[in-house]
């Protein structure tokens, strides 16, 4: 008797919740089409300069994939560099991000995750044909923004990272030059 009630209850809940959630339609997946040039595997070099020290370079491997039938784009980047003390190669950067379009707010969402547990919600916008900007606030310090230019013909990805303490004056601290390898 108990088992015969469970199945109808599960079916009723499925119908109830499927009607309560808005259907994902082509309009949602079309919103990520401006980012189509991101899709692929990218490799190259990045350079980061923090403070007065020397710039640190890393060999980057970025994998960008469309998932959920075009509803999200996932980005995973791993940077490897040489430890100056041990002269051994090590992972110096490992990040994961999910890019989506929120139909309710009519805005792109860029959720980032770092290997050390940090992460956050970043803004992202299309600034032109295959040009983009994304960034986030750093509480009590300032703002970071990243400008990306993708050339699908040359298969290049150029990215500049900048910091601003006041939101008006920007200083470059990161540059990446990648080539699509697949």
TrEMBL record:
Signal peptide: 1-23
UniProt keywords, alphabetically: Signal
Protein name, UniProt field: DUF1579 domain-containing protein
């Amino acid at each position: 008797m108990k088992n015969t009630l469970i199945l109808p209850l599960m079916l009723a809940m499925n119908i109830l919740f499927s009607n309560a959630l808005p259907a994902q339609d082509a309009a949602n997946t079309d919103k990520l089409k401006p980012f189509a040039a991101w899709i692929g595997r990218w490799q190259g070099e990045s350079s980061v300069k923090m403070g007065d020290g020397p710039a640190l370079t890393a060999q980057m491997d970025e994998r960008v994939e469309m998932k959920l039938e075009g509803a999200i784009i996932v980005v995973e980047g791993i940077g490897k560099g040489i430890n100056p003390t041990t002269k051994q190669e090590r992972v110096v950067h490992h990040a994961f991000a999910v890019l989506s379009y929120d139909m309710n707010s009519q805005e792109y969402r860029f959720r980032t995750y770092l290997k050390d547990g940090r992460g956050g919600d970043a803004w992202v916008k299309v600034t032109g044909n295959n040009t983009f900007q994304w960034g986030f606030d750093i509480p009590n310090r300032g703002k970071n923004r990243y400008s990306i230019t993708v050339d699908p013909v040359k298969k290049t990805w150029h990215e500049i990272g900048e910091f601003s303490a006041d939101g008006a004056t920007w200083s470059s601290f990161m540059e990446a030059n990648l080539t699509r390898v697949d």
